Structures are given as C-alpha cells and as structure tokens.
Amino acid sequence: MTALLDKFANQLDWNLLRTFMVIVQERSITLAAHRLSVTQPSVSAALRRLEERLERRLIERGGAAAFQPTAAGEVLYRHCADIYGIVTALPKALDAAHGVVQGIVTLHLSGHIHWPELPALIAGYRQQYPLVRFRVKRGTCADILGQLAQKHATLGVVSARDARPVLVQRKLFDQEMGHYMGHGAVHGADDPHAAPVIGFEDEQTGSPLAALSVHRIRAGLEGPTVAEAPDCESLAALVRAGAGIGALPRRYAAQDPGMAELPLPPIVLPVYLARHEQAGLSPADQRFLQYLESQGCLPAQP
Questions:
Q1: Are 203 and 228 spatial neighbours (Cβ–Cβ below 8 Å)?
Q2: pLDDT single digits (tens) 183-239
Q3: 57 vs 44, 66, 75, 82, CA distance in Å?
Q4: Which GO terms describe its molecular function (predicted)?
Q5: Which of the two residues, 68 and 162, has the higher pLDDT score?
Q6: C-alpha distances out from residue 254 to 53, 134, 177, 202, 263, Å
Q7: Helix (H, G, I), strand (E, B) or coil at 225
Q8: What are the C-alpha distances in Å from 65 to residues 10, 24, 27, 60, 69?
Q9: Rounded CA gap, 20 and 196, in Å?
Q10: What long-range pairs does 97-100 form, CB within 8 A, spacing at least 24?
Q11: How far is CA 62 from CA 20, 21, 45, 122, in A?
C-alpha cells in the first residue's frame, strides 16, 4: 500500500493541482486561463489530465450546475488550498529557521484610509530590523477581507467588521470623514446638495463603505454618482478639479488648500488591522505587530 501511495505521489503533477484550484476559484476556464497567463486549451487539458489521473470527475460541465465542483472536486480543492498554504508559507518558515528577522511585510490598505503615522512607524521599525522590507498595496475593503479569508494576504487595514470567525480584527484608530468640494464651482451644479458625487469603489449598498452613501442621503446630498475612485489621491484630484463632491479623511483633506469642507457633521469610520487567525505570521510580521503595540497603535493582546 505504501509503495502504491509513493508511486501516486511521484507521478502526480503538482501544477495540475494549482490549475484545478484556480479553476474552482474562478468558476471559469476562461478566467482561470487569464489568471494563470496560459491559453484556455491548456487549462482544459490540465483539468482533463487530472481527472484521468485521479479517475474522478472533478467539475460539473453542463446544466444549471455548470462549473461547480463535484463532491470529489470539493474534497480535492480543500486539500489543494492546504497544499498551497504550506508552499506559500515556506519562505517565512525558512526565514524563521535562519534566525535573523528579515523578509517582506506586506500591508494591504483600503483605498479610503489615511494613516499619516505609517511612514514614521515603518522607519522606526526598520531601525530595529534593517533587513525587513515593506510592500504597501491598495484595494477595497471587500477585496482585502476576501484575500485574508483565503490566506492570500497576511495583514490588512480596513474599515469593516467582518463576521467570518477566522478573521481577527484589532482596532487601530477612528477616521473622521468629511465631504468636500473644490474651491471653484462644481461643474454643472450651483447647489452643493444637487452636485454630482465622487465616491469610493466600496460605497455600493451592502459594501463596507455604504455608510458614506447613507450619510450623504441623510444630509440631503442627492446628486448622482458620476465617478468612483480607488483611493484618496484619485478622489481628491476629481474633487479639486470640480468634477463633484466627495468624502475624504479630514486629516488628509486639511492639508489640501484646493478643497473646502461642506458644513456637515463628519462620519466616523473605525479602522482595523485584520489577519487570518490561522495564517502563519513571519517573524517580520510578528515583530511589526509587536512594534505597533509598543507604540500604542494596537491594544496589546491578552
């Protein structure tokens, strides 16, 4: 039996498992091919070879259940996700074995968040751990939380409390958001209450930043949304140019002489540092969280 299992493991192409995992995640051969940067026939052939090797149908290809994994496919996907998690954790494990704190700390920040203390925090941290590099990526709250839940990201900074129990969220600070317009007239509107709106990508109903839209409605700002911006910089540029009014962090907008705040009460959005409770943290990640605690940015964990 052991010999048979060894033969199975030696003959199995691990790239087929990676392709299958992406097919399940994308629910499409076309989208999987695009994500893997290969052709659709290559993806189809890989799926067929894997099914032949395992002697199981893994994907339903027709009817209402098109491109849904079969029961065997569901089991295989869970194992593939575990394998992928182990492989992606290898660099962190090797860094830990080396005994020197090094590597990359990747922070995924929601585009609407302004954290002016972050550069100084990174600089102070690197004085203690000069071999650590930082990578800061922008995204929407929903995308970042989704990546964290799938263990495709390690640390995220968001404004949404997520109900998934696997996500651990610790409060960083409260962010006041005000509504602004350029010092010149908003194009196409004399009354700010009817002015077009520039929103963030995450402001749709049911999304993490929907509170901003609700706040505008209650304040009588009834203009149409004419553009969505991915981050503060892009949204501020549109507001400054007179394309419409938009919500921005007050600490960010206060530095911009090209904008004026509307006389409305601000809305307060809590900002959290989020991670997956079961995702392995590298020594660099662990030391960064400890550094944030030492600087009073994060409450110490019990």
A1: yes
A2: 766 655 567 778 899 999 888 767 778 888 888 888 888 889 999 999 999 999 999
A3: 13, 13, 12, 21
A4: DNA-binding transcription factor activity; transcription cis-regulatory region binding
A5: 68
A6: 62, 27, 11, 23, 14
A7: strand
A8: 33, 13, 11, 6, 9
A9: 45
A10: 100/131
A11: 17, 19, 17, 51
211/216 Cα distance (integer angstroms):
9
Cα gap 140→62, rounded to integer Å: 34
Q: Which residues of 66-99 are buried (b: 16+ CB within 10 A; e: fewer)?
A: ebebeeebeebbeebbeebbeeebeebeebbeee
Supply the pLDDT for residue 7: 59
93-107, 111-125, 134-148: which has the minimum mean pLDDT?
A: 93-107
d(CA 268, CA 296): 20
Q: What is the Cα gyration radius of the chain?
A: 24
Domains (ranges, CATH) in the chain? 2-90 (1.10.10.10), 101-173+271-294 (3.40.190.10), 174-268 (3.40.190.10)
Give Cα 156 distance to the centre of its chain.
Answer: 7
Residue 194 backbone class (left: φ over 0; alpha: ψ -120 to 50; beta: rest): alpha
Among 179, 183, 148, 177, CA closest to 278: 148
* Rounded mean pLDDT, 19-36: 88
Mean confidence (pLDDT) of the chain: 86
Read off the pLDDT of each residue in 41-45 and give the average, rounded to a whole number: 91
Residue 228: what are its φ and ψ, rounded to 5°? -125, 135
- The percent of the chain in helix, strand and coil, each rounded to the nearest 5, is 45, 20, 35
Which of the pair, 5 or 181, is modelled with greater confidence?
Answer: 181
Q: What is the pLDDT of residues 272-302, one digit of tens each?
A: 999 988 888 898 999 999 999 999 998 876 5
* Residue 257 pLDDT level (bands cut at 50, 70, 90): confident
